[in-house]
Amino acid sequence: MADNASLSAPALLEHSRARYTPALREAVGRLAAPMDTIAGYHFGWNDRYGCPTADDAGKAVRPALVLLSAQAAGGTDKIGIPGAVAVELVHNFSLLHDDIMDGDHTRRGRPTAWSVFGTAQAILVGDALLALAPQALLQATEGGSSPADTLRAIRQLTSSTCTLIEGQCQDLAFEKSDGISVAECLVMEGGKTGALLACACRIGAVLAGADDRISHALHRFGYHLGLAFQAVDDLLGIWGDPKLTGKARWGDLRRRKNSLPVCAALAGGSTASRRLSDLLTDPGSADDDEWQLAERATLIEAAGGRAYAEAEARRQHATALAALSEGHFSDRGEEQLTTLAAFLVNREK
Amino acid sequence: MADNASLSAPALLEHSRARYTPALREAVGRLAAPMDTIAGYHFGWNDRYGCPTADDAGKAVRPALVLLSAQAAGGTDKIGIPGAVAVELVHNFSLLHDDIMDGDHTRRGRPTAWSVFGTAQAILVGDALLALAPQALLQATEGGSSPADTLRAIRQLTSSTCTLIEGQCQDLAFEKSDGISVAECLVMEGGKTGALLACACRIGAVLAGADDRISHALHRFGYHLGLAFQAVDDLLGIWGDPKLTGKARWGDLRRRKNSLPVCAALAGGSTASRRLSDLLTDPGSADDDEWQLAERATLIEAAGGRAYAEAEARRQHATALAALSEGHFSDRGEEQLTTLAAFLVNREK
Question: Which residue of A131, A148, A168 is in closest CB contact with B158?
Fold first, then answer.
């Protein structure tokens, strides 16, 4: 990315995609049939029969952050590619398994992998992507990273992966609980989303041999950006346009998910909060009734949940930028990461 | 294992268990609640409420092979411990996920984790063990392995893990297919069981800095030992005593699993082969009727499937020992691996 100083966020994402996709496809292409086809379907590279398509492959923000991270630490983006591939593999492992656990039928506007190929195959392909991730990092020594930095990168990847899995476990537990506090919700979201975004923002720099000061600043930037990203995700999960998000309308409400707007609304103490609580704890309340789901959305907004999550996204975004400025990166390095951060917080899908 | 030259196989297993279990428990203990409890339940360390127990934790042959592998290459068993932990984590990840896919309710004489804690939690705990495995290998640099050897070990672990997952994927596909040949079955079993046993037999030596000649000999030994082990497993899956195996009686027949005795029996061409084929392809044949399952077992034996699998176990065992002797290990190193191999092939559980 030598010539991308003033690129827009979509251009940065496109630029990064062109850089890491060949390595990602090579890693995934090593899987035996039918796992290569299932993985390719999930990534949007082929249809369910294995024929090439040009479906939506997702925003792929994490690999773009990895390449910018390598660059911010003075490395080339080539040195970041194994990190970009590894982080994207872990992210997609988690999507494949989460869709099974959450019973989601749609992702990126298409039927989810488990709903096309069955649960067992989708579990196995998720497992395979998870197993491929540290393997992808082993390529780093060929890209110019030292063995010691490669081992550091593997340590950060596996540790973030464990935290991500713990976050998903908490998320599932929260669906069965009442009275999750805003603080508990933020800890869960820090695990589920913050950990891997922090890893993405740091691992490129680590592969480029960055010192602890740089690596920690990028980690904090990524963690808070992850929390901002998740707050926006929670907002889109209730008020997003399904045509843009590619997900089913009101999926989070249907599952009575204790996302940030819901937790904040329930903690508000107003009449709307109490009415929402009654609705969500009523076992007779129908989760497949559009009218009732619309009522839940209205009550969450009336109880201040929407405003709280919007403010939280802004707060976390500001904290991320403050962490970034403490890293004293080059103007260009900071500018690019700032551009991408703004895009993630202001997105509509 | 400086003083275990003439130990019996059970004593070798016990010795190894005492060596690596603290490190395994430490790795698993890092998981957040409730995942630590679920993993501990699976390993037989605690009951479903988290209270300590002394349940059957499995044979744990793989970690014993890792420690013997380190020793055969001239290392201490301490240098093999991170490998033993990593391999045992991968093995148990696969058990957790396989039990879900196979719908097995019993393992080691206890209800399987998914049947106690639910599918989602069991998927996540399996994921966590898989993520912890390469992390465990990172400890190797503290145990005296070089960064380069640690990276080699991670490469072998992740590559074997992918092959194992591919083998399980083929195994599932075979359950829905008729006419799986003996050769196809052996390739599948080589992936599902051979790959990780080969890794176990090699990774200790790699961590101890072994050269390629030693590492390859141990790999071949482990691969063929794995095939012998799986042939015995297939035999126990039909004719084993549930009181000893800890698994449900005739589980493999109930699922119409195309295991080695079944594939060999179907390929036999006798009247019994044809009668078996008719039974297995009859959609009306009841998989929950003990009488019909007993008839399938009788036909598999009459068609030569039992004798074939017994002979195959002996063949693979002999090939494994031949590979071992090509490694020119010390008498003691070869003796210990030979003792353990004989135990695995002659076991009744």
Answer: A131
CA distance B332 to B202: 17
Q: Are β-strands B110-111 and B106-107 bridged in parallel, bridged antiparallel, or unpaired?
A: antiparallel
DSSP letters, B281-335, are H-TTS-TT-HHHHHHHHHHHHHTTHHHHHHHHHHHHHHHHHHHHHHT---HHHHH
A317, A307, A324: which is closest to A346 by C-alpha? A317
Looking at this protein, which amino acid is placed at residue A324?
L
Q: Are residues B240 and B253 in contact, defined by beta-carbon separation less than 8 angstroms?
A: no
Identify residue B214 by its one-letter amino acid code: I
Does A150 contact chain B (CB < 8 Å)? Answer: yes
B110-111 and A106-107 as β-strands: parallel, antiparallel, unpaired?
A: unpaired
In B55-176, which residue ranges form alpha helices assigned H by DSSP?
61-72, 77-102, 113-117, 119-138, 140-143, 147-175
What does the mean pLDDT of chain A come to? Answer: 93
- Dihedral angle, C-alpha A36, A39, A43, A47, nearest 10 °: 70
d(CA B135, CA B142): 13
Is B199 part of the contact surface with chain A (CB cutoff 8 Å)?
no
- Spatial distance between the Cα atoms of B162 and B196, rounded to a whole number of angstroms: 10
Full DSSP string of A148-206? HHHHHHHHHHHHHHHHHHHHHHHHHHHHT-S---HHHHHHHHIIIIIHHHHHHHHHHHH
8 A C-beta contact, residue B45 and residue B57: yes
Nearest one of B111, B72, B89, B94 to B23, comparing CA atoms? B89
In order of their start, the domains of chain B are 9-345 (1.10.600.10)
Tokens for B215, please give them.
Answer: 């590492």
* pLDDT tier for residue A170 given thresholds of 50, 70 and 90: very high
Q: Which residue among B132, B138, B155 places its CB closest to the CB of A135?
A: B155
Q: Can the peptide bond before residue B34 be classed as cis, meaning omega within 30 degrees of 0? A: yes
Give the per-residue pLDDT at B5. Answer: 54
Dihedral-angle region of residue B177 (phi above 0 means left; psi in -120 to 50 means alpha; beta otherwise): beta
Residue of A nearest to B120 (CA): A101
Angstrom CA distances, B205 to B22, B24, B50, B208, B344, stand at 21, 19, 36, 5, 21
Contact B255, B102 (CB under 8 A): yes
A-chain CB neighbours of B169 within 8 Å are: 32, 34-35, 121, 124
Surface-to-core class of residue B81, CB atoms within 10 Å of its CB (0-12 exposed, 13-18 middle, 19+ buried): buried
Rounded-to-10 torsion of CA B37, B91, B112, B98:
130
Tokens of B145: 């392995």
**Interface residue B151 vs chain A (CB under 8 A):** yes
Nearest to A124 among B119, B138, B168 (CB): B168
* A window 82-141, beta carbon within 8 A of B: 93, 97, 100-101, 119-121, 123-124, 126-128, 130-132, 134-135, 138, 141
**pTM over cut 0.90:** yes
Which residues does chain B have within 8 Å of residue A130's beta carbon, measured at their own beta carbons? 127, 130-131
Q: How far apart are CA A339 and CA A334, in angstroms?
A: 9
What does the pLDDT look like over B64-99, one tens digit per residue? 999 999 999 999 989 999 999 999 999 999 999 999
Q: Is A158 on the interface with B (CB under 8 A)?
A: yes
Asked if A187 has any chain B CB less than 8 Å from its own CB, the reply is no
Alpha-carbon Rg for chain A in angstroms: 20
Section B143-170 average pLDDT? 96
Peptide bond just before A34 cis, omega within 30 deg:
yes
